[in-house]
Specification:
Layout: H1 8-28, H2 33-47, E1 63-65, E2 70-81, E3 87-96, E4 103-105, E5 110-118, H3 130-133, E6 136-143, E7 146-154, E8 161-162, E9 170-171, E10 176-180, E11 184-191, E12 197-198, E13 205-206, E14 212-215
Antiparallel strand pairs: 1-14, 2-3, 2-13, 3-11, 4-10, 5-6, 5-9, 6-7, 7-11, 8-10, 12-14
Helix pairs in contact: 1-2
Length: 225
């Protein structure tokens, strides 16, 4: 299983430590410690696994893929959202446990407009309050002249959001764009909630770059922002 280079500092550092500890254990004859050391390294490495995924090729243009692996924890409608240009929006929230893949993927083909990092708290990502007050990074994407959003939200364990995107960067549907290290939350924000057909339900397991979360037809020309 490939490991994400976005987490090389963590799994690479753990690898060097495992090698050093194994050398010491071998030198002093603590053979029993070797499987323990490498089992612990495998646990760390598993957080940063980055499975190869083939994005479904027959999806309609109005389909939005999940930006993360995890469990759908909330589906909300809000009266106003920055990612929708201040208009109403639908938010599909995904909770990532420490056992889930933590690489984020683009829900559709789009252009990066901007990223907005907000400092905040580090409450348990399973709570509703964490979505409002925790550290987060909002990525606003342009899709055919209309904006959508993907928001990375830290959790109690996750303390580092990784997002190297730059304004103007082109993303393909399902393309990797960042990760949140350890437990966290990822949101997909779509405009025109009356025209959003949500394809998942709360409690459902989803996979980044594979599961269709919702469908939203392109905006009519006179509605384009």
């Amino acid at each position: 299983m490939p490991l994400s280079l976005l987490g090389i500092r963590e799994w690479g550092g753990a690898l060097l430590m495992a090698l050093a500890l194994s050398s010491v254990a071998w030198w002093v004859g603590w053979w029993w410690a070797l499987p323990v050391i490498w089992l612990l390294w495998l646990c760390v490495a598993a957080f940063f696994r980055d499975p190869i995924r083939n994005v479904p090729a027959d999806l309609p243009d109005d389909a939005f893929l999940s930006p993360a692996d995890g469990t759908v924890s909330a589906i909300e409608r809000v009266d106003s959202h920055e990612a929708a240009g201040g208009s109403p929006a639908v938010i599909i929230r995904i909770f990532l446990s420490v056992l889930d893949v933590h690489v984020n993927r683009s829900p559709c083909a789009a252009t990066v407009l901007r990223c907005h990092h907000r400092p905040g708290r580090h409450l348990d990502a399973r709570t509703a309050e964490s979505a409002r007050v925790n550290e987060s990074n909002l990525i606003i994407l342009d899709r055919g002249g209309e904006t959508i959003g993907v928001r990375q939200v830290s959790g109690a364990i996750a303390r580092r959001i990784v997002c190297p995107l730059k304004p103007g960067q082109q993303l393909a549907r399902g393309e990797r764009f960042g990760m949140i290290k350890f437990g966290s939350t990822t949101e997909l924000i779509l405009p025109r909630p009356d025209q959003v057909a949500v394809q998942v339900r709360i409690g459902e397991k989803v996979r980044g770059g594979l599961t269709v979360l919702a469908a939203l037809s392109p905006a009519p020309h006179d509605d384009v922002r």
